[in-house]
Design brief:
By secondary structure, this protein is mainly alpha-helical. The chain has helices at 11-23, 29-46, 58-61, 69-88, 112-123, 132-151, 155-159, 190-206, 224-236, 250-267, 272-283, 288-296, 302-308, 311-315; strands at 166-167, 172-178, 182-187. It has three domains: 11-88; 112-243, hpI Integrase, Chain A (Orthogonal Bundle); 250-315. It has 14 helices and three strands. The protein has a three-stranded antiparallel sheet with strand order 1-2-3. Strand 1 (166-167) and strand 2 (172-178) form a beta hairpin. The chain is globular and about 65 Å long.
């Protein structure tokens, strides 16, 4: 929705907020969409008024039919930023408070059998249209989904990876401007690095591109949204859909990586108090507790945590293992 036209009396402030955020390096695309909705709300509800008060935004604050709490919280957060900007410009305005509790979603961690079934489908995928671009992207699916599973990258971090971001001397990738505007280095397993290098070399022999995972247009990377749809199609073809209450997503591969890594460490007798900070840093988490949350959903493994790791009671004291 870039270059949207705002028409309400809030337009100058909305445009100023967008300009400020983007000057600081934020994309602010989703926020622009909500600000456009707010602009229309303001024009319909408050007319020519520019008085940003509790009463004038009351309608915007209410939860809508079929709207989740997280979406409601995001809408309120966006106009809170607008109010803060307006106050900074000398326009005294009411600052909404986001006090909506959004339960964290239960994640799907793939079992080893599910992982095997999923990659069996991915590796046997043959596109209907055998054009060079489509065939190349099909080869990319085999690599990028393994990248998610073996490194725990977020969806956008993998699709936006550039060839120059990879250091083959130590099999590492530098992830720039990730969540929280932080950079970090992520290491690859040796066998996966061989697979990735072969894939990149094949692409470079056919085209000029800066992207590790170029789309049909080599000047652009894979689309995260299109990749999620492709993941869903592959999963549906595994025949396991009926057996899962919550279908997995690409992000499930990140959760699965964490669980497999922590299980392996504990099976080797390693102390998570020592290892977890390294894993948190590789994942781009703020703290070890955030990383441990992923593992929290694998109930059958709690006995291992109780027996081998002293961190469990400190992070999740409400858990009782019998």
């Amino acid at each position: 929705m870039k270059n949207a036209v705002f028409t309400s009396t809030m337009a100058p402030y909305i445009e100023g907020l967008l300009a400020q955020k983007r000057a600081l390096g934020y994309k602010y695309d989703v926020e622009e969409y909500y600000l456009g909705c707010f602009d229309r709300y303001w024009a319909e509800t408050n007319g020519d008024s520019d008085s940003f008060t509790m009463e004038t935004v009351a309608g915007w604050m209410k939860q809508r039919a079929r709207e989740g709490k997280s979406s409601q919280a995001l809408r309120i957060y966006v106009i809170r930023q607008l109010a803060l900007f307006m106050n900074g410009m000398g326009k005294i305005s009411y600052i909404p408070t986001v006090r909506i509790r959004c339960p964290r979603p239960v994640v799907h961690v793939l079992t080893r059998a599910e992982i095997t079934a999923f990659f069996r489908v991915v590796d046997s995928f043959v596109p209907r249209h055998q054009s060079p671009a489509v065939t190349r992207m099909a080869a990319g699916y085999k690599v990028i989904f393994r990248l998610y599973l073996t490194t725990g990258l977020r969806r956008g971090e993998a699709v936006n990876l550039r060839i120059r971001d990879i250091d083959w001397n130590n099999n590492s990738m530098t992830i720039y401007n990730a969540k929280g505007r932080k950079d970090r280095v992520v290491y690859m397993a040796g066998d996966f690095a061989v697979l990735l290098k072969s894939y990149i070399e094949q692409n470079m022999s056919e085209m000029d591109t800066e992207w590790v995972f170029p789309s049909a247009d080599p000047s652009r990377p894979f689309s995260g949204g299109a990749l999620s749809l492709r993941f869903r199609k592959f999963w549906n073809e595994t025949g396991l859909t009926a057996d899962t209450a919550k279908p997995p997503t690409i992000h499930s591969l990140r959760h699965t990586y964490v669980v497999l890594r922590m299980n392996a460490w504990m099976a080797q007798g390693m102390d998570l108090n020592v290892m977890l900070p390294y894993l948190s840093r590789a994942l781009g988490h703020k703290s070890s507790a955030e990383t441990f949350y992923y593992y929290h959903h694998v109930m059958e493994a709690f006995h291992m945590i109780k027996e081998r790791d002293s961190l469990a009671d400190a992070v999740f004291p409400e858990v009782r293992i019998r």
